[in-house]
Amino acid sequence: MEETNKSVVNDYFTSAMELTESGDPHVPTRYILPPSQRPMLGPSIGTSTINLPVIDLSFLHDPLLRLCVIHEIELACKGFGFFQVINHGISSAVVKDAQDSATRFFDLPADEKMHLVSDNFQEPVRYGTSINHSTDRVHYWRDFIKHYSHPLSNWINLWPSNPPCYKEKVGKYAEATHVLHKQLIEAISESLGLEKNYLQEEIEEGSQVMAVNCYPACPEPEIALGMPPHSDYGSLTILLQSSEGLQIKDCNNNWVCVPYIEGALIVQLGDQVEVMSNGIYKSVVHRVTVNKDYKRLSFASLHSLPMHKKISPATQLVNENKPAAYGEFSFNDFLDYISRNDITQKRFIDTLRKKNL
Question: Model-level pTM?
Answer without folding.
Answer: 0.91
